[in-house]
Amino acid sequence: MEYLHGIFVPPFSNALFLVFLILFLGFAIGRIQIKGVSLGAAGVFLVALVFGHFSFGPETLLQKIGLVNIDVAKYSSSMNLVQNLGLLCFVTSVGFIAGPKFFYNLKVNAKSYALIGVVIIGSASLTTAAIIKYASVNSAMAVGVLSGALTTTPGFAAAQDVIKGDLEVAVKDNENAQAQFATAWQELLPVVPEGADLQHVTSLVEGLTGAMANLQRQQTLEASDNAVKAAQELATALGELQNDGNADDYATALNAMVEAQTKVATTISGVQTQLDLLNEVTVGHAVGYPFGVVGVVLFVQLVPLILRVNMEDERRKLSASSDAKERALPDKLINIDPLGLAPFSLAIILGILLGRVSIPLPGGATFALGNTGGALIVGLILGHFGHIGPLNMRLDNKFLASFREFGLVLFLIGAGVPGGGGFVEKINEYGFMLFVYGAIMELVPLFLGFLVARYLVKLCLLNNLGSITGGMTSTPALGALIGVAKTDDVAAAYAATYPVALVFVVLASQFLVALM
């Protein structure tokens, strides 16, 4: 028995083992069909959520019984790496696949795609604003839920950036208050009456100084709680000293010390407020994300079934709307490796570099494509032109399809496991209505975008759904749509709508957090 225990139990503490276990179980569940609808790759996400619920945290069931024994910080870091690697592989593959027909499709339908992107993000933002105003939901929490419902990492990061800017100001105010506090303490010590016992106060001053230094370094809620507690204890001790009624110079210095301590306590509370807001954005994102993934995935599968369309006819319509030929490649191009891993890696490198370029926007905001947008744009360009100078960048479609699917499931595992950790606890803590608000934020733009694409700009169904996945910035939904449509051509509509939606969701997230 111990022999078998030694074989089967230790691997559960290996993050790589868990990734492939979740992947296998997820695909097994995802292929189950109910009335023609299956979760597909989203089954991997659901298994990841469940596994995260039972293993992501020191107090979870699998950690308690010892089946999974992974430090949470290392677990989180591993899942973050898996998620980012998967996302880069997925969007780069999509870019290469859509590239040959992308620019033709964009030329024909550019206004339609831009309109759909604006409608989706605009309606989602207005819905969020209404929930903030009439449901009394904190703006940071609401924007976090919105970013989760739209599965948008850039929107999530944009909301955090606004709060981080305010956090920097609060930290700077605390630094200035610390300097005043240190000066007041040094001025108090020489005028303390003989026989006065300041040993306890000295200990509290040193404790508060250390707590503030720790808060400056870590900037966490735990550090701010400790600093608040230390400030309160010192305030009580200083109040007792004031009651002694000593000489004027001592009383003056003591009053200055009390004033400095009060300012320190106020600035610590300011830092804590911003850290609370950062936490609310994170929690909101975690609440909205599972619904954002599953909702759009089900939507792109259910709509063709509800409308009872002939998918072969829809593929012909899609092909006719994007009837572009691949560019001919020059002769004698250099192939770095026979499989295509080298050019694929080069595209990701260039995408990461492009994603770091920051563009200033009105109102002091900035915009960057990030890793996702940068890799997508580079993939589209290289997929269209097929080479960089003498280097051949034209990749085999089977290679790209494999990396697209593998990247998608890695992304879903990396996002799902941390998302599942504490998911039930979040429901209990923040109430079920928060999840209802997340569903509303997702469904309103989803249906409105679909109606605009179908009846106003009159896109064919697959172009319609492709643009919806781009407008919702939903990577998992695109993967599901490719599976439903059985053609990669739908990626062109996603790729055309995605950048427009990305810009507007970043602006909307910053606006909602800053002004509401």
List the helices and strands and how they pair.
Blueprint: H1 2-8, H2 15-30, E1 33-34, E2 37-38, H3 42-55, H4 61-64, H5 72-134, H6 139-149, H7 153-188, H8 199-218, H9 221-242, H10 248-307, H11 311-321, H12 341-355, E3 358-360, E4 366-368, H13 370-385, E5 387-388, E6 391-392, H14 397-420, H15 423-430, H16 432-456, H17 461-471, H18 475-485, H19 490-515
Antiparallel strand pairs: 1-2, 3-4, 5-6
Helix pairs in contact: 2-3, 3-10, 3-14, 5-6, 5-12, 5-13, 5-14, 5-16, 5-17, 5-19, 6-7, 6-10, 6-16, 6-19, 7-8, 7-10, 7-19, 8-9, 9-10, 10-16, 10-18, 12-13, 13-19, 16-17, 17-18, 17-19
Q: Can you tell me about this structure?
A:
By secondary structure, this protein is mainly alpha-helical. Helix content is 78%, strand content 3%. It is built from 19 helices and 6 strands. A two-stranded antiparallel sheet has the order 1-2. Strands 3-4 form a two-stranded antiparallel sheet. It has a two-stranded antiparallel ribbon with strand order 5-6. Strand 1 (33-34) and strand 2 form a beta hairpin. Helix 5 packs across helix 14 and helix 10 (248-307) crosses helix 16. The protein starts with a helix and ends with a helix. The relative contact order is 0.19.
